[in-house]
Write a structure and sequence with these properties.
The chain is α/β, with parallel strands linked by helices and 191 residues long. The N and C termini lie close together (12 Å). The chain contains 9 helices and 5 strands; from the N terminus they run E-H-E-H-H-H-E-H-E-H-H-H-E-H. It is globular, with a radius of gyration of 16 Å. A 5-stranded parallel beta sheet has the order 2-3-1-4-5, with helices on both faces. It has a single domain, classed as Rossmann fold. It binds adenosine monophosphate. Adenosine monophosphate binds next to helix 2 and helix 3.
């Protein structure tokens, strides 16, 4: 059985950072929808141009586009021992589509691991990250607040969605990076 993890949490919670460690330890394919969108933007593809118009404001990219892209990424990596989904799903429609898609491939989500942190701490982290990364959506507090609003409105309901499947695990996302990796690894070991 493949191990398929969803990393869940607000912008800046550390999903990408933790995914980088977990993919090595567990030999999983890391799929970050935000990274795939940013790669499309830098290559100036039509997908990138479409995504940019939403991302620059801190709005979610429409479900149909995002779901199609995610499925293509999974299809291109069929041989992987499993996947880390980072930044996907972000809406109930995406979560339902992911369940159906994985089922069609005789796979399922093993666990959804939420990195929890307070919005004020995250805002400070994102503004700091924006200085280095140059990401426009990390450099403006209004855009950051909008991303939290999108999260609270559209993504937060997925906690109940995965709890209903007994797949939701919460982790304190504040602390040393290596400590947080240990907290997540303890959950994966117990699966
Ligand atoms: P991230 O790198 O995960 O912070 O994502 C950056 C931006 O990409 C988000 O603010 C959205 O505009 C877009 N994005 C990434 N993943 C998704 C998704 N699953 N659904 C919709 N939009 C997404």
């Amino acid at each position: 059985m493949k191990t398929n993890l969803v990393l869940f949490g607000k912008p800046g919670a550390g999903k990408g950072t933790q995914a980088a460690f977990l993919k090595e330890t567990y030999q999983l394919k890391h799929i970050s929808t935000g990274d795939v969108f940013r790669a499309n933007i830098s290559q100036n593809t039509s997908l990138g141009q479409l995504a940019k118009s939403y991302m620059d404001k801190g709005d979610l990219v429409p479900d149909s586009v995002t779901i199609q892209m995610l499925e293509a990424e999974v299809n291109e990596n069929q041989a992987a021992a499993g996947f880390i989904f980072d930044g996907f799903p972000r809406t109930t429609a995406q979560a339902e589509a992911l369940d159906a898609f994985l089922k069609s491939k005789s796979m399922e989500i093993s666990a959804t691991i939420a990195l929890e942190a307070d919005e004020d701490v995250l805002t400070a982290r994102l503004l700091e990250r924006g200085k280095e990364s140059g990401r426009p959506d990390d450099q403006d507090e209004t855009k950051i607040r909008n991303r939290f609003q999108e999260y609270n409105l559209k993504t937060a309901p997925l906690e109940a969605f995965y709890k209903a499947q007994n797949k939701f695990y919460a982790v304190n996302g504040i602390g040393e990076i290596s400590e947080i990796t240990k907290r997540i690894s303890a959950i994966i070991s117990g699966l």
